[in-house]
Amino acid sequence: MELWSYSETIAGVHKQMKQYPYELIALYMKENQTFKIEVETFCRHFTQREKVEKLEAFSYLPVKGQVKLKGPDVVFQYIEYYGIDPKAPPENPYMVFFGRWITNGLRQLIQDLSLKNRKFIGNTSMDPQLSLLMANQAQIHPGDIILDPFVGSGSLLVAAAHFGGYVLGTDIDYLMLHARTRPSRITQKKREKDESVKANMAQYGLDHKYIDVLVNDFAIQFWKDDIRFDAIITDPPYGIREATEKIGTSKENCTVSEQHLSTHIPAKIVYGLSSLFYDLLAFSAKHLKLGGRLVCWFPIFREDYQEDGLPRNPSLQLVANSEQILNKHTSRRLLTYKKMSEPINKVMEERNHITDFRTRYYDNREETRKERRMKRAMERN
Ligand SMILES: C[S@@+](CC[C@H](N)C(=O)[O-])C[C@H]1O[C@@H](n2cnc3c(N)ncnc32)[C@H](O)[C@@H]1O
């Protein structure tokens, strides 16, 4: 809303509005404009009669048009704020606000896209509020092409598609992409046959925005050099709830015999956070359109945090960096980068040191009760 006055008392708001310079609000007081006054009392219930009395207290406003309750040209918004404890609201409001309503927010979307009712979820599905926030940071427009290279159950694709993006994703985990991992809901014994990222999109009427999801190790790229994405939004693994792995082997000269090739499942090695984020930024520098955005989470050991230790790439500018505290020691940062220039080939990019969050996490984590019990039992033996 366009805030015209606020005060700790009801009388304070009325005093300010009576003295409000007419020329600043004349645009909304015209004879040919219909209007209504909306009364909202936050955290305290009032009867309709009491609400009408609050509304009538504004009879001095110099409005010239007719009242219209449904679809008026102008809505004036009056709010009394009684705190956040509905069981013990104070007699008088803490704050009172008055102004012109501009538009509603999209908070209802958080409920509409709730993970509770989503067809297919995994253990690390991102909640809708943060997914929507990431899609906002990426400035997704209708018709954009959006990639999540660590797509999991595809929560970020749901938010991106909601804002009009055509979405695709990749993930190393074949079972996850085919919704064949163990169910994540304790009440669910077996995965339903029709669980999938695509089914999630259909659930929200977004299936026309779904391109596909593909099994791919991010460390091994298969995209054509000239493909460009409008935005990349992703939540890479941190190595705590899910492994940071890539395909590879520590064995020298490893070969697979002809007869085993068709059933061979490639071995995996650790994909250190530093390499993973280096690759993610280099990939984005190459495959984003100019001005396109990379939005990703980056885990932090809070004591170690320095902006210098964040991943960087000469073609990308860090435009936003916000912290979500997880516990005393750890947090994650939502990083938004904007592509400013095409990467210059052949020049070795400067590689800054990124602290290995996983090592620090396990070095500093307090022992769990189970670990203490096992340690004591071992000492006794
Ligand atoms: C934090 S989860 C992403 C969760 C996802 N945002 C969702 O809503 O379900 C990280 C994902 O990265 C995948 N992953 C791990 N290593 C990978 C790699 N080398 N290449 C591609 N995906 C990888 C994991 O299988 C996991 O699904």
UniProtKB/TrEMBL annotation:
<dbReference type="InterPro" id="IPR000241">
    <property type="entry name" value="RlmKL-like_Mtase"/>
</dbReference>
<keyword id="KW-0819">tRNA processing</keyword>
<dbReference type="GO" id="GO:0005737">
    <property type="term" value="C:cytoplasm"/>
</dbReference>
<dbReference type="InterPro" id="IPR059073">
    <property type="entry name" value="TRMT11_N"/>
</dbReference>
<dbReference type="GO" id="GO:0000049">
    <property type="term" value="F:tRNA binding"/>
</dbReference>
<dbReference type="InterPro" id="IPR016691">
    <property type="entry name" value="TRMT11"/>
</dbReference>
<comment type="similarity">
    <text>Belongs to the class I-like SAM-binding methyltransferase superfamily. TRM11 methyltransferase family.</text>
</comment>
<feature type="domain" description="Ribosomal RNA large subunit methyltransferase K/L-like methyltransferase">
    <location>
        <begin position="117"/>
        <end position="245"/>
    </location>
</feature>
<keyword id="KW-0949">S-adenosyl-L-methionine</keyword>
<keyword id="KW-0963">Cytoplasm</keyword>
<feature type="domain" description="tRNA (guanine(10)-N(2))-methyltransferase TRMT11 N-terminal">
    <location>
        <begin position="2"/>
        <end position="107"/>
    </location>
</feature>
<comment type="subunit">
    <text>Part of the heterodimeric TRMT11-TRM112 methyltransferase complex; this complex forms an active tRNA methyltransferase, where TRMT112 acts as an activator of the catalytic subunit TRMT11.</text>
</comment>
<dbReference type="InterPro" id="IPR002052">
    <property type="entry name" value="DNA_methylase_N6_adenine_CS"/>
</dbReference>
<keyword id="KW-0489">Methyltransferase</keyword>
<keyword id="KW-0820">tRNA-binding</keyword>
<dbReference type="Pfam" id="PF25904">
    <property type="entry name" value="Tmrp11_N"/>
</dbReference>
<dbReference type="GO" id="GO:0008033">
    <property type="term" value="P:tRNA processing"/>
</dbReference>
<dbReference type="GO" id="GO:0032259">
    <property type="term" value="P:methylation"/>
</dbReference>
<protein>
    <recommendedName>
        <fullName>tRNA (guanine(10)-N(2))-methyltransferase TRMT11</fullName>
        <ecNumber>2.1.1.214</ecNumber>
    </recommendedName>
</protein>
<dbReference type="Pfam" id="PF01170">
    <property type="entry name" value="UPF0020"/>
</dbReference>
<keyword id="KW-0694">RNA-binding</keyword>
<dbReference type="GO" id="GO:0160102">
    <property type="term" value="F:tRNA (guanine(10)-N2)-methyltransferase activity"/>
</dbReference>
<dbReference type="InterPro" id="IPR029063">
    <property type="entry name" value="SAM-dependent_MTases_sf"/>
</dbReference>
<keyword id="KW-0808">Transferase</keyword>
<comment type="function">
    <text>Catalytic subunit of the TRMT11-TRM112 methyltransferase complex, that specifically mediates the S-adenosyl-L-methionine-dependent N(2)-methylation of guanosine nucleotide at position 10 (m2G10) in tRNAs. This is one of the major tRNA (guanine-N(2))-methyltransferases.</text>
</comment>
<dbReference type="GO" id="GO:0043527">
    <property type="term" value="C:tRNA methyltransferase complex"/>
</dbReference>
